[in-house]
Amino acid sequence: MKKFLQFPHPFFSARPTWKWFILINVLIGATMSALDVSIVNVAMPTLKNEFNTTMAVVEWVAMAYMLTLTIFLPFFGRLADMFGRSRLYNAGFVVFTVGSLFCGMAASAPFIIAARVLQAVGAGLLQANSVALITQAFPANERGKAIGIQGAVQAIAMAVGPFVGGILIASVGWRAVFYINIPIGILGTIAGLLILPPNQKVAKKESIDYLGTIFFASGLAFLVLVFNEGVKLGWGSNTIIVYSLHACILLGLFVFTELRVEHPLIDLKLFKNSTFLIGNLTGMLSYYVLFAVLFLMPFYFEKVLNYSPALTGSLLTPIPLAMAIVAPFAGHISDKYGSRIMTSSGMLVSAIACFSLLFLGVHIHLALLVGELILLGVGMGLFTPPNNSAIMGAAPKEKLGVAGGILNMMRSLGLIFGVDISGVIFTTLEHKYLADKGYANVQHIFHDSRIPLAMKDHAFMRGFLVVIGVLMVLNVVAAFLSTAKKERGAADPEAANAAKEFDGI
Predict the structure, then answer these.
(1) From the centroid of its chain, how far is CA 103?
(2) What is the pTM assigned to this prediction?
(3) Bond before 198 cis per omega within 30 degrees
(4) What is the pLDDT of residues 233-250, one digit of tens each?
(5) CA distance 224 to 226
């Protein structure tokens, strides 16, 4: 009995393939968190009716989750470096599962919003440690392949999420959207106890940077609120100005604090490494592009082309599926030839895909459009795993948790900025076009019967195509920056030494 209760269990830890068991456990968490993000969006209209509340309140079901997740990722990564990645990863399973249970039991909008915050804490513990656990388990020459597999699983989960969510809501009810996480979370917790490596003892006890954490979390929260609320409240409104000032002051205080404390929340010296700095910056740009497209394309399909929601969802599926197919191969190739050629190529392919979207109009060739969306997914699949592998390879072993937290935080910021900034550009140009035609201050364009249908389409395309042009430029910028990264090896002694350490784990 005593042998059976050993953690990790000898059945897994004594095998040469132990690292693959660790990856499988990480994939369980990746599936659960990625599925939850996409599946809950489908339930938003149902939640609005269920709780008899406004859309502004229901939006916080998603907003509270994303805000909590984004601002605490580096903190959770730091805690993992101090107290053990396996311990906190398993805690993430437990917290996420309990949060899902509370979401399913919710009887009011405030309750489910609070439960989503708890869910986000669990997701943060999982995400901050997932890539770090992979990096710790796999040698440098296999890291890209493993991260590519993780990316593929996440993409598939995101692709099937809306489909699964629609079926569950129609056949069982909206609560099943949250309850589905419970068996997955229980499985992940048990597997984590049996599989994940023992927590390594920290050689030197370090204190938690509470002041830096408060400055960073609150400053980042205000920054996210600026971009989320700017369109609704107006960019010149007193509220947005106050939010902006708070964000600048608090983030400035955070940098001031981090440069002076002995054990900072985020060691800013990490950003002296060009691979780490450029990798995170280009990673944010890539998610900016991806989610801007995923945000705008449904409006194009439904408002301009008059496609049904079901067809719209089907047409967006090729993007994550293409990412899922390409990602493992991209990671494997980057293990052999380095990340630079894969990341720069991926962004150039994405730029070509955005360039092809510039020729869209009110009439299209559907097969050609699907091909363009597949091309975008291929570009993102080529870029993401090699870039994530390069970022983690550039971080010292004792800071893998913080590095993983920053990586995922930048991904979340890319999602937020991609949707919000693209929405601002699109809305501004669309309204300007209509104002020039004599229809100023229109609130609900496609429901306004005064405006000719052809004019509505042209107003939409004016904003849409400018946004796509901006995304194409961002892809080119990211491709150029990717070429500036130092490759692992002689060109980057720090990364090379880190790689040697990982090979010995």
Answers:
(1) 21
(2) 0.82
(3) no
(4) 777 888 999 999 999 999
(5) 5
